[in-house]
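Reopening this one. Same input as before:
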Amino acid sequence: DLHRGLKIQASKFNLDGTAERPVPPPDVDYPLDGQKILHVKGSIRDSVAELLFEQDNEEKSVATLILDQDILGSRSVSKEYFTQTGRIPDWCCLSNPSLEMFDVGKSAPPMMKRAFSTEK
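Same output, byte for byte:
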C-alpha cells in the first residue's frame, strides 16, 4: 500500500519526531511440516519486508538482487539457447524445449537462390 509505505518512510526519516509508524499488519500462523505452526508477529513481518528494499549507499537491495538473478540467469540461458537453435526462446519454452532441438540429423535449410542470373 502506497500510503502505508509513505508513513513508514516519513517516520524513518523524521527529524522533529512528530511522525509515527503505521499500525503493523496482523499476525500470521504458517503451518510447517503439517503438525507445527510458526507464529509470526505483524511487527516482524513489517520490518522484514522493509529490509528487502533498504539500500546501503551503492549496494543493491535484496529485492533487486533477486530480480537481477532471475533476469540475468535467464538471459544467459536464453543466449545459449539462441546460439544453439537460432530461435528466441519464450519462458515456457526453456523448461520444455521443442522437438526440433532433439532432431539432430536435420540439415539446415538451403540458401536462397538468386532471382536473376548475371551469366550470358
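So the earlier flakiness isn't reproducible anymore. For the record, The chain has four helices and two strands.
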